[in-house]
Amino acid sequence: MAKELLPKKSDNISEWYTSVIRIADLADYGPVKGTMIIKPYGYAIWEAIQKQLDGYIKEKGVKNAYFPLFIPMSFLEKEKSHVEGFSPELAVVTVCGGEKLEEPLVVRPTSETVIYDAYGKWIQSWRDLPLMMNQWCNVVRWEKRTMPFMRTSEFLWQEGHTAHATHEEAIEMQNWAMDAYSKVYRDLLAIDGYTGLKSITERFAGAANSLTFESLMPSGKVVQSCTSHDLGQNFSKVFNIKFQDEQGVDSYAWQTSWGYTTRSIAALILAHGDDNGLCLPPNVAPIQIAIVSAKATKEVVDFCRLLNEELVGNGIRSEFDNRDDETFGYKLNKWEVRGAPIVIKVGPREVDNGKLTCRRRDTLSDVEINRGDATINIRELFDEIQSSMLNSSVNYKEENTRTASNYDEFKDIMKQHKGFIKVFWNDDPKIEKIIKDETTATTRCKIAEDTSGVDFYTGKPAKDIWLFAQSY
Amino acid sequence: MAKELLPKKSDNISEWYTSVIRIADLADYGPVKGTMIIKPYGYAIWEAIQKQLDGYIKEKGVKNAYFPLFIPMSFLEKEKSHVEGFSPELAVVTVCGGEKLEEPLVVRPTSETVIYDAYGKWIQSWRDLPLMMNQWCNVVRWEKRTMPFMRTSEFLWQEGHTAHATHEEAIEMQNWAMDAYSKVYRDLLAIDGYTGLKSITERFAGAANSLTFESLMPSGKVVQSCTSHDLGQNFSKVFNIKFQDEQGVDSYAWQTSWGYTTRSIAALILAHGDDNGLCLPPNVAPIQIAIVSAKATKEVVDFCRLLNEELVGNGIRSEFDNRDDETFGYKLNKWEVRGAPIVIKVGPREVDNGKLTCRRRDTLSDVEINRGDATINIRELFDEIQSSMLNSSVNYKEENTRTASNYDEFKDIMKQHKGFIKVFWNDDPKIEKIIKDETTATTRCKIAEDTSGVDFYTGKPAKDIWLFAQSY
Questions:
Q1: Do the chains contact at A43 and B66, CB–CB below 8 Å?
Q2: pTM above 0.90, yes or no
Q3: What is the ipTM of this complex?
């Protein structure tokens, strides 16, 4: 738990990252290479995200369901680009109940195929549409280069899958999902980012197009942890998802899928942490307030206990850290590493003068509030911290979004700063590959259609504005 | 959706069971043999159970976490009886990312081994105890004879895993879990049952002893869908879960594990359904109230809409079924099959006289209430339905618990009635096997220690009272 064991974030962000996960007790390594144990403190962050996002999903009328973990290999093979995209990453079950299987089973890397096989049976008429389901589950993608939360062989996510009568309706759904994700990012995680369309190279295997939310980390690299796909009729044609419209004409359904993963917790850790450890925004912090007493006299302990009960009773995630084997200093240190948004330090002085000393994790400064209206004051402080953290993220993003008008400028930015590079560009997989090989940067997303400029790479008239960056 | 397609429960309960699941839209078959798709109407029942049980778990101070799906085969082999119990049912991953694995990976059938391997690393001192974690997840047990919800190759559950300094504390935990499960069964599912200890044959592979909740179905067979195990030091010795006590002495931790599964939904369907379909208790019904209009005039539709808004606003899971392609009769029929506890039938008369006609699903009778205080009246009705359904279950259990003083009486009861058979008996795996082979009955649980009788099978002095029954 000791902060001293933590490498400086500013010195070596990857070492800092793996250390802070361990020291702040977010996760541990699993016994199988590339797997992870999400410990209670990390899982509580996921539960806070789930609660918010599940609320949005239910409000929209999307229904939760559960589809099988195992998918027949032949299902994956039905959609050509889908299987090409996923086959290098598959975990395959070949033996069940002591017998070799005739057809191997794939552990779901994503569930389009198994869900759309069912949709093909369930959908007959326009009255069955829209069909909108979601599941919260685990998926497996066998990754060579792993990193806790960021890229693990198994991860948790929600995947929404919908079928609509028209393409317009599907696009509306695709946009809705990305809006919900951005809200979670901004309002809960206090992380800003860019939303836009993926390039041909980067889009989901089997999608007509993919929306993404891309957020910049202090390493200068970018995290993508949620995407929303317009699947067009690609899967409905393969899985025969047909409906008879009001005029009696048969059509293939228009589909979307969208997913949000535990990877967002990697972004949360990286974006806000500092040399002292984690720094969690109040809206997602498992412990929003840690109460720590400077002296364990009866008066002080009673005061802390009462305060804690009052805060908890008012719906604040507060904890009175009453361990008797740790010093005051050790506890302050511990809650700093663990990123609790506010630590309330209580000693005899506070008991006497009716004031509370609140240590803000984000600014590392003390704020004095009245004990009398502690809940109101703390709620206000939460709002201030939350919006101040989001503002930092907005500023960081903006300061690190640079424009390149040609490839030399582009390469200079990659060498000197990394971050987002904004360019006029025409999507071309071959060029994207060259740029990636030469600079490590790939397209993150198309943020606007704009014909006023020239393609930074080819010098020809360009149609769109794109963001490039190195990604995790 | 048509009730006419439903076989009579009284004629053939297994055909009725698979039909009602399909017609009421609870679940569908997955593409892989023995797997199931839990559809939204079925999944919402699971969510209601989760919400309640997760609340109990958090109140108790048990923390949610997430452990990996894949377990190295060698982990399972560490605890001898554990691997013997589970090896016939394992699904095994042998290929990952296109390469054959050196050590095959087991898809978790339960997570003792992977969790206790971690506990062995995390626990050093008495200060680390109790360590109490829980996860909500999927598990895979490859079953030959499957039945939706009742026994599927993959199912959903929670599994709690704890480590304690003393055996007493572990037993307290084991009892706590079984109490929580009984509360879910009785208060939510309105199903009564017996709690007791499992026999040597029936207990969990690796446990010192297992507590169970056993409930009787109208088929005369019994469902077991949750168990709570005292693991003694069996796993802590194998996974080296040691702690130094306050005196500096090293001891192995005492452990428990406990799980509650989607199998309880099988019990819910079987226990309360009738020839007309599902019958759901209000506390767990996804739709507690269906509002159906006899005539779709503007007045009636507005009345229904307002009523629905009021009920939903008061936290009641109400739905105004406003489809225009189904008749009034068809809708009544549909909500009967789907088991909505109350259907409110609205026509011009109700709009005029300020009364509401509530059709109770459990009694199939109409109750008139005042529109004015609809919410209060409906809440009272819910309570009445819930307790009346539980009472039926209590009565059914008691009427079908019969006492046998010798093996002939036992066999007669099995032939004529099935149900629970209460006997004096001394636990003996060899005798249990003979009884099972000859009568299909197995021990369900030991309900009391009592030395006043003689063993029904051997005629020798007996130590305990046991319940036998045929199980699902």
A1: yes
A2: yes
A3: 0.96
